[in-house]
Design brief:
homodimer, alpha/beta, Molybdenum Cofactor Biosythetic Enzyme, Chain A, 6-stranded mixed beta sheet, 3-stranded antiparallel beta sheet, 9 helices, 11 strands
């Protein structure tokens, strides 16, 4: 039996909920998870609020194989992710000796003062292990199945690159896309029949609208190439049939 | 005492979680909520899964003044939002007589067959009221404090424009669209300057690509007609200037 590996993402930050910053990490994580065969099952966005973060972390970490967070690990007063994650796990949040020494040396080498604000970035839940940050130094961390990463997209992506090789990965989904020049109203019933006839595929229909015209991108996903090809061929045959009759 | 009005968003769709489609509705809703003084407190993204949708709807609608959903109201087999929302409210999901008659006439006027798939779009929870869809006809709906809208960004935005004036503290936003024959790379810096110079507007840029050409739809939104007109005129002047210099 194939083990199904699942993931959830928690995006932390008032600036995403206010619209001031547009999230770019959800789509990236989704792409990477799909590529390595992990099912991203849920995403939540919560504000910089202790209770909201604790509740979400505990809801997600108990239900999914992995949790990935973005945001709230910088040096300012509203960066409260480390404290909230520690609280969720019921452990103290404290200066991590290795992170502290690393950051002290990091700023010394740049002739920058190791301020109280910067020292905050060495705080993490007791027992956490580091996720290296090749861009700006301050590490993310992992505790249990929760991976805590930065919100700045370049740093989030670099940290995720370091995390990916440590993950159990599921069987990779393979996919095929069929371009369909008809809208969903035209193909809906036929497509539902194809989905029923190919239960080992996941057939998605993605409506597009541009300049007054509807068309559809049909994506077939499966865990085996054989199932994929059977599903794809059925969808393509449907489209070809409609073109002839249209 | 000022009443605090809160909102939550539920994004429904496997395609967002797989990374195939990148969400553009969260940022838009966040901008609009901020503009009209409603606090967006939480966003969740869930798959096209009955149980996940029901659980999320019930968690969010009991905790926030308003809930807005995107996705899953089209004509195909994976469009299960209406059924799931009905289940969350404990009411039947059935053909809505007004929506059915409207869609029947809508397709008849276009010489298009009113297929079983298209009929699905007339289904909604008993007691729901319509949210008009000026783009493709099939309405969204409102039941209790939950507003169910389409996932296609142009339709989501048009539906939201219809919902905003009905919300408590919803200062009505007015909007104007400027067609721009240039891509975002050309106009990005100029447009950012205009946004800065017109802080009481929200200027959205919606990139389009067709037949090998990039162009952009620029939408200016504001709470007053004066601010709107000032912003619109600035955007139009930018486009006109580029046309001359191009």
């Amino acid at each position: 039996m194939t083990e199904i590996i699942t993931a959830a993402m928690l995006v932390i930050g008032d600036e995403i909920l206010s619209g001031r910053t547009k999230d770019r990490n959800i789509g990236h994580l989704a792409d990477i998870m799909t590529a390595i065969g992990i099912d991203l099952k849920e995403v939540r966005i919560v504000p910089d609020d202790d209770e909201e973060i604790v509740t979400a972390i505990n809801a997600l970490r108990t239900r999914r194989t992995y949790v990935f967070t973005s945001g709230g690990i910088g040096p300012t007063h509203d960066d409260i992710t480390a404290d909230a994650v520690a609280k969720a796990f019921g452990v103290p949040c404290e200066y991590d000796a290795k992170a502290y020494a690393f950051l002290e040396a990091h700023y010394a080498a740049r002739g920058m003062e190791f301020t109280e604000a910067r020292k905050r970035m060495a705080r993490m839940p007791r027992g956490a292990t580091h996720i290296d940050n090749p861009i700006s130094g301050a590490p993310g961390f992992k505790i249990g199945n929760v991976h805590v990463m930065a919100g700045v997209p370049a740093i989030f992506q670099a940290m995720l690159d370091n995390v990916v090789p440590t993950l159990k990965t599921g069987t990779k989904l393979v996919s095929a896309t069929v371009h369909c020049p008809f809208g969903e109203g035209t193909i809906g019933t036929l497509l539902a029949d194809i989905q029923k006839a190919h239960p080992d595929t996941i057939i998605g229909s993605y409506p597009k609208y541009q300049d007054g015209t509807f068309w559809t991108e049909l994506v077939v996903r499966a865990r085996s190439p054989e199932a994929l090809e059977a599903g794809r061929a059925a969808v393509q045959a449907m489209v070809d049939g409609l073109k002839k009759s249209g």
